């Protein structure tokens, strides 16, 4: 990552950190973009260069490129689901304690604010398309193959259930929940 990209990522993280703090202190609906910008010592127009909406400051993250890179590094003998699981777990395990706390706070906020849940759905649809492409490439199938998109949708569903559960049970380790849920998906979700 070059200097420009590192500076951009640092500014984005700062904006998100200040937004989370303000949302905790004042509530999501009572916090304005102007207040977030002021706390992050940027202008509102700079805020909108990083995030299109107030919802995006919570929904947006930089994990997709990390997931793609980790997925592509997985051994070819792993199934697409096993490769996704290994990639997701390596990404979560590579997060600092501070990043994990921020993720939990974001998830708790998302689950408690209807506008954020709606924005999450849009974000998850884009992530599902990304995973569909990754799985299609790895399996040698077309990205419009129904089985491929169904697997991607199941992976997204697992992630949403893990996010919801972790938001309500912050004492449980996110990586353990994710591993358990994806392993259950791989074994056919036996009940």
What's the domain count?
A: 2
Hey, roughly how much beta strand do the residues contain? under 5%
The total count of strands amounts to 0
Count of discrete alpha- or pi-helical segments spanning 4 or more residues: 10
CATH class of the largest domain: Mainly Alpha
Calculate the mean pLDDT score and round it: 92
Remind me, CATH topology of the largest domain? Tetracycline Repressor, domain 2
Q: Report the order of strands and helices.
A: HHHHHHHHHH
Structural class: mainly alpha
* Largest sheet features: none
Proper CATH architecture of the largest domain? Orthogonal Bundle
Domain HTH tetR-type: 9-69
DNA-binding region: 32-51
GO molecular function: DNA-binding transcription factor activity; transcription cis-regulatory region binding
Protein name: TetR family transcriptional regulator
